[in-house]
Design a protein that fits this description.
This protein is of the alpha/beta class. 18% of the residues lie in helices and 27% in strands. The protein is built from 6 helices and 17 strands. The longest helix has 13 residues.
Length: 346
Amino acid sequence: MADTGLKTSDFYFDLPKELIAQDPISDRSASRLLLLDKDTGRISHDIFKNIGSYLKKGDCLVLNNTKVIPARLLGVKEDTGAHAEIFLLKRREDDIWEALVKPGRKLRPGARVVFGDGLLKCEIVDVVDEGNRLVKFFYDGIFDEILDRLGEIPLPPYITHKLKDKDRYQTVYAKYDGSAAAPTAGLHFTKELLKELEDKGIDIAYVTLHVGLGTFRPVKVDNILEHHMHSEMYMISAEAAQKINRARDNGNRIICVGTTSCRTIESAADENGRLSAGSGETDIFIYPGYRFKVLDCLITNFHLPESTLVMLVSALAGRENVLNAYREAIKEKYRFFSFGDAMFIS
């Protein structure tokens, strides 16, 4: 991609704090829906449960079926009893994980941390990129069950309320453990709504991208081309690749639910926009000037100012159209970020 001349500050907008959704609404599909025509910039409003009115028979809806793991472990140092936090990022091999640790100064290689009265222990093995640690766990039983019992679901830093029901930070179709954050555009779907869409003749393809904490990492450079994206693991099944390819061959639309589904299929596609089954790591950074190979439309939430997610949405719909839609959403008091309202870019 050529230098766009765009700066991080070109994606700034002023968001009143009270519009950051702190709690999920009781009915997932009752959130509001802003509709943006990417060609004309035209904006209209609806509610999410009517999304089927804007989808056509033969469209392929691409969903990310990753599952958020209870990645936040609170324990004590074995030698001093001082509080310690281990935040799991990525499983490297069986019992060795890459993790963020607090306090970093006290958790050097050799340090041991105890969780749940000794049900789980770990030792810091090594220091890797950006001060992250490799951590080896020791336990009796099944690690995932112990983690489910002792770990907390990590919420984004802008959510300060405690989550009453941890399933509300999972999509209803979450299947494969591995994410540090939810693919939040999918939180609006209920099982009933998905069935309604399938009955209408909309094909649903599930892909997997395990969302890392890079999702929340602010862009700290003014020239967006200098920003380094962290890599995330993805998988595409033969069935999903076949459904997406078939829709394209038939001239139907590929509609991604969320930026993670978008990044998955755009990473995996060949130059002709065809997908094959497989898995890999992606650090794709999509910003204005990018030519989409597969995606036609996007269902997404409202994102943080100056974030890579606003840049991705702007690559699809144009920066001015997106910022104008965001101004409209703020004026209409839409709810923003993870538990907020949705936007359909067509």
